[in-house]
Amino acid sequence: MKRKRTSKKEAIEILNIVTEQLLKKNIRPEMTLREYAAFSGVDFKQVVIDANSGKLPLMEPRNPLKRELRRVNVAAIYTKALAKSLLEI
To answer: Does 46 reside within a domain?
Structure first.
């Protein structure tokens, strides 16, 4: 079965649903690597390895000229999982 490509409008709707649900459950849509490790129960070193290898979606720096902690895009993780499950329906 050929996968249906998600339209931009559908992607925005999915992102809005995911963000709303994350906030209802007091899950922040972005976390530092250390916060994400504690939240997910994964060892911090493994989170760093996953971030370095591109397995975790990272937020763009707020100010590229300043040094800041890398942040995991938690909303993107949930959105990707939701979109995948919707395509399987």
So the answer is: yes
State how many domains the chain has: 1
* Helix runs in the chain, H state only: 8-24, 33-40, 44-53, 74-87
- pLDDT above 60: residue 1: no
User: For 26-53, what is each residue's pLDDT tens digit?
Assistant: 888 899 999 999 999 999 999 999 999 9
Residue 21 in contact with residue 66, Cβ under 8 Å? no
Look at residue 41 and tell me if it is in a domain.
Answer: yes
Any domain includes 1: no
| 54-83 per-residue burial string, b: 16 or more CB within 10 A, e: under 16 | eebbebeeeeeeeeeebbbbbbbbbbeeeb
Domain of 71? 8-87
**Cα–Cα dist 23/74, whole Å:** 11
